Structures are given as C-alpha cells and as structure tokens.
UniProtKB/TrEMBL annotation:
It comes from Nocardia beijingensis. It catalyses: (2S,3R)-3-hydroxybutane-1,2,3-tricarboxylate = pyruvate + succinate. The keyword Transcription does not apply. This is Methylisocitrate lyase. Pathway: Organic acid metabolism; propanoate degradation. The lineage of its organism: Bacteria, Bacillati, Actinomycetota, Actinomycetes, Mycobacteriales. Its cofactor is Mg(2+). Belongs to the isocitrate lyase/PEP mutase superfamily. Methylisocitrate lyase family. It comes from the Bacteria. Keywords: Lyase, Magnesium, Metal-binding. Pfam families: PEP_mutase (PF13714).
Length: 304
C-alpha cells in the first residue's frame, strides 16, 4: 500500500529533502498545484517540489486574494496535496493569519499537515496580491516579531520558514534588502522578494543576501519571466510558478464550455481532453484493483 493511499515518503524526509535541495546549488522548481491530482502530475514529470498558492486557494473558493481565507482552509488544502506526493510542499501562509502568536500556531498546524515549509509576508492585513498596486507593508520590527514567533513554534528543525517581503515596489530595492537582512537575523531560512522587475534586480538581491533565495515567476505580473537556467546561474535556490496550472486549466475549461454551449456537444473537444486511460494511470487505478483483489481472494483457514 506504500505510495497508494498516501505518499511513501514521510513528512520528515520531505523536509530534509527540501533543505538539501536549497543547499545543493541546483534550482528547486516548484509549480503550483491547485489540487492533489496536479501535485501527482508535477511529481511524475520530475520537478523538485510542489507549491500551494494562497491566491489559488482563494480563487478556487471564488474569492479575491485579499486575506479572506482562513488558516484552516489553507492548511487543509496543503494537507490534501502533501498526502499524495513524495515531493516537499511549500505553502503560502500569507501574513500568518493574525498576530505573531497566530503565525506561531500556523506553523504548528502546517507541520501537522505534512508540509515542508511556508512563507510569511510583511504586508499589512488585509493583504493584496503581490503584483498589484496599493500594497502596504508593516514596520520591519513587526515582521521580525512575526518571524521570531514562527521560528519558535517550529518542532522539526528542517521545516523551512521563508520570509517574503513586498517592500521592493513600495520602499525600493535597497529598503527590501535591508528588510531581508533583518528577517535573516530573525531566523528566516529562505527569502522571497516579491515583484522584482528585471534580471538585474534579481542579481542585485542575490549579491546582497547570504541565505537561499526564492523567485516568483508568475504570469501577467511585474516580474520579467526569467528561465530556470538563468535563475540558477544568478544563484537563486528555488522558483515557484504559483498560478500557472490553474490559469492553464481555467482557460481550457472556459473555451470548452463555450463550445459546448454554442455547439450543443463536446464531440469537437475530445482531442483536447485528458483521456480516461490517462486519468486512471495518474490515479493508479490498476494498483487499487490489484490490492482489492488480494484482499478479496484471501481464503480463510478451516478454523476461521
């Protein structure tokens, strides 16, 4: 049953793998998974990790990304994703869902959910999507308290606490670098600077900050879409593609639904659909059938 109903790799081993990956000088690529089945596909294709985006969790609930989701909703989606993959899962924990003590509790909840790490940001509540205008950040000292609380709540030392700063677009890159250094001193293991614009911005940040860095390659935002090979050459340690799979899926779903509405049939869409056999392959349908047969075929002894 290993790897069938749940991942074969323990949460502790996945956290250790994430730590090792960040220290490997190889870029860790984490596409966003909007459901557990997508996470399984990410693993099959060969990526190093899986990301769970707060914006995507909000969007799935038909809510904007302005801090309306709860820690319970986000953690449960993280638990569902982590359950089915042997890859480490990094999750978006927004601002920690409240005051520093809430951030501490969030870390405990995410550890219990089998997550490998989370990022906490320095925006004020209610937060906004990192690539929109009109954001505001808390004072550096407040974010430092948030991070210290999160670090103090960690039970597994390999659970990665990532500090995200949204200050570059508000206070400038120099201020964002100063914040990042304060966050490192507060115990952050990884730094995520949101909404940098160019390769030069990423290079500047890399030269200024000593610990592993994460890049966000989201579409239709403020950042230039930089290739994984370039990010690795710059010296970045991880990259997320947070909303890519949801955008791909929603675009395809909308086009298909419009055609069904207009044509009255899905007959012209079959070559654009995942075949039943491929879905069953991802679901490991045959392994479930084999297991069920083994259980059913057990013959009880004479005295049973």
């Amino acid at each position: 049953m290993a790897g069938l109903l749940a991942a074969a790799t323990s949460a502790a081993d996945k956290r250790a793998a994430f730590r090792a990956g960040l220290a490997s000088n190889r870029l860790q690529r984490l596409p966003g998974a909007f459901n557990p089945l997508v996470a399984r596909l990410i693993q099959e294709i060969g990526f190093e990790g899986v990301y769970v985006s707060g914006a995507v969790v909000s969007a799935e609930l038909a809510l904007p990304d302005i801090g309306l989701t709860t820690s319970t909703e986000v953690a449960e989606r993280g638990r569902q994703v982590a359950r089915v993959t042997d890859l480490p899962v990094l999750i978006d924990a927004d601002t920690g869902f409240g005051e520093p003590m809430s951030a501490a509790r969030t870390v405990s909840i995410l550890e219990d959910a089998g997550i490998a790490g989370c990022h906490l940001e320095d925006q004020v509540n209610p937060k906004r999507c990192g690539h929109l205008d009109g954001k505001a950040v808390v004072p550096t000292g407040e974010m430092v308290r948030r991070l210290r609380a999160a670090v103090s709540a960690r039970r597994d030392p390999n659970f990665v606490i990532c500090a995200r700063t949204d200050a570059a677009g508000i206070e400038g890159i120099d201020a964002a670098i100063d914040r990042a250094k304060a966050y490192v001193a507060a115990g952050a293991d990884l730094v995520f600077t949101e909404a940098l614009h160019t390769v030069a911005d990423f290079e500047r940040f890399r030269s200024a900050v000593s610990i592993p860095l994460l890049a966000n390659m989201t579409e239709f935002g403020k950042s230039e879409l930089i290739s994984a090979s370039t990010l690795e050459k710059i010296g970045y340690n991880a990259v997320i593609y947070p909303v890519s799979t949801l955008r791909l899926a929603m675009s395809a779903a909308e086009a298909g639904l419009r055609e069904i509405f207009e044509q009255g049939t899905q007959a012209g869409l079959l070559d654009r659909m995942q075949h039943r056999s491929r879905l069953y392959e991802l679901l490991q349908y045959e392994r479930y059938s084999e297991f069920d047969s083994q259980i059913s075929d057990c013959t009880p002894g004479r005295n049973q």
